[in-house]
Amino acid sequence: MISELIVPVLWLGGMAIVFGAILGYASKVFAVEKDPKVPLILDVLPGANCGGCGFPGCEAFAVAVAAGSAKVDSCPVGGASTAEKIGEIMGVDAGGSERMIARVICQGTSSNCSNKFEYYGVRDCKEAVIAQGGHKSCNYGCLGFGTCERVCPFDAIHVTEDGIAKVDPDKCTACGKCIEACPKLVIDLVPASKGVHVDCNSKDKGKEVKSNCKVGCIGCKACVKNCPEETIGFEDNLAKIHYDKCTQCMVCVEKCPTNAITAEMIQTKQKVS
């Protein structure tokens, strides 16, 4: 009886040893070597896993950077300081990349923009847009139901009492979640150091814009004609500032008859070492 049990046990034990040896050999032959830079890059990343870099998470981004398929300054949350650290690990110059922040390109508050009808449905922009493109008279404006606010992982955007979303520049990391969530495509990334903006998203002609909103761009081109640096373009009935050339001289702000171009004082924060 015992001998009948010993033989199968020996067979199974022998097979286990053989297969174990095969697996051990295969693990060495077919092993995928991990780049030692990956854990180093991961250590300096903020670990938000927001996807703002274009990759599913921080680890995927670190692997891509180590492989040379992603730029060292692609992490919007970490910003310039993280880019510099990654650059040191990779042995490359991170460059002076400009910090970007999200901005709601619209001033269509409840007092500035009229409504086509009263909306009583679900308080969600993606739902509201189904009904005739939304309740706002301007088909390009912020609907103000906070879809962007709910997807922001950094609590950086909120709908104000006047019915329009506003971004907190100090909290914004330019992860792009709000941009993806907005059905009106009214949110864009702008340089954090720039304070002059065309805060209108409408592509309608001037007469229609004027009937819909008090502060919309009517396409008069006064800003284009008067900009001393020639940094303002005009496309789809809408003025557009080329930030790389803008000196923030404020001439366009003064010349805009509808106040569609706004100006903000930008305070540069310095780190104390």
From TrEMBL:
Residues binding [4Fe-4S] cluster 3, per UniProt: C152, C172, C175, C178
Cofactors that this protein relies on: [4Fe-4S] cluster
Family statement drawn from the similarity comment of this UniProt entry: Belongs to the 4Fe4S bacterial-type ferredoxin family. RnfB subfamily.
Subunit description: The complex is composed of six subunits: RnfA, RnfB, RnfC, RnfD, RnfE and RnfG.
Enzyme Commission number, as recorded: 7.-.-.-
Function field: Part of a membrane-bound complex that couples electron transfer with translocation of ions across the membrane.
Binding-site residues for [4Fe-4S] cluster 2, renumbered to this chain: C138, C142, C148, C182
Listed PANTHER family: ION-TRANSLOCATING OXIDOREDUCTASE COMPLEX SUBUNIT B (PTHR43560)
GO molecular function: 4 iron, 4 sulfur cluster binding; electron transfer activity; metal ion binding
Span list, region Hydrophobic: 1-27
Organism annotation: Alkalibaculum bacchi
Free-text cofactor note: Binds 3 [4Fe-4S] clusters.
InterPro entries per record: 4Fe-4S_dom, 4Fe4S_Fe-S-bd, 4Fe4S_Fe_S_CS, 4Fe4S_Ferredoxin_RnfB, Elect_transpt_cplx_RnfB/RsxB
Gene behind the chain: rnfB
Pfam families: Fer4_7, FeS
Location(s) in or outside the cell: Cell membrane
Main enzyme class: translocase
The protein, known as: Ion-translocating oxidoreductase complex subunit B
Domain 4Fe-4S ferredoxin-type: start-end pairs: 134-162, 163-192, 207-236, 237-266
Residues that hold [4Fe-4S] cluster 1 according to the record: C50, C53, C58, C75
Transmembrane intervals: 6-26
Keyword terms of this UniProt record: 4Fe-4S, Cell membrane, Electron transport, Iron, Iron-sulfur, Membrane, Metal-binding, Repeat, Translocase, Transmembrane, Transmembrane helix, Transport
Domain 4Fe-4S: 33-92
Any GO CC annotation of this UniProt entry: plasma membrane
Range of residues in the leader sequence: none
GO biological process: electron transport chain
